[in-house]
Design a protein that fits this description.
Elements: H1 2-14, H2 20-38, H3 52-55, H4 60-69, H5 85-97
Helix pairs in contact: 4-5
The structure holds heme C (HEC).
Length: 102
């Protein structure tokens, strides 16, 4: 059991992604914090929809920049005080893949 956990963490770290534990925290953040504005199913609320369809064609880099710095003059806050680059890239990749899974 311990070996499996260690392997999972090692695999995640090797791929340049957050650890399994960190991914769990990020998934919670996505639902609770991002979801409070973007909707629990990312279909929109105060903020626009962040579903796979809604984000189709938007450059990954610009989405990462939006999450990092926020959008001045709008309700979208910047997250760089709480999240590092790896965390933000992981969140954006989850959204581009479609989150949460249907
Ligand atoms: C307080 C409300 C609020 C919270 C919390 C919030 N957002 Fe936003 N977000 C917005 C608003 C409003 C916009 C639209 C800004 C605009 O008009 O350009 C936005 C825009 C975005 C965009 C750009 C979408 C596009 O179509 O270009 C992304 C990506 C995004 N948010 C991701 C996130 C993520 C990830 C989180 C959590 C880490 C988050 N947001 C938390 C309000 C919020």
């Amino acid at each position: 059991m311990l070996l499996i956990a260690t392997l999972l963490v090692a695999t995640a770290a090797g791929a340049g992604s957050p650890t399994a534990e960190r991914q769990q925290q990020l998934a919670n953040l996505l639902l609770q914090d991002c979801g409070s504005c973007h909707g629990l199913r990312m279909t929109g609320g105060l903020g626009p929809a962040l579903t796979r369809a809604a984000l189709a064609g938007k450059p990954r880099d610009s989405l990462i920049a939006t999450v990092t710095h926020g959008r001045p003059g709008t309700a979208m806050p910047g997250w760089k005080a709480l999240l590092d680059e790896q965390d933000i890239a992981w969140l954006v990749d989850r959204l581009l893949e479609g989150y949460p899974q249907p």
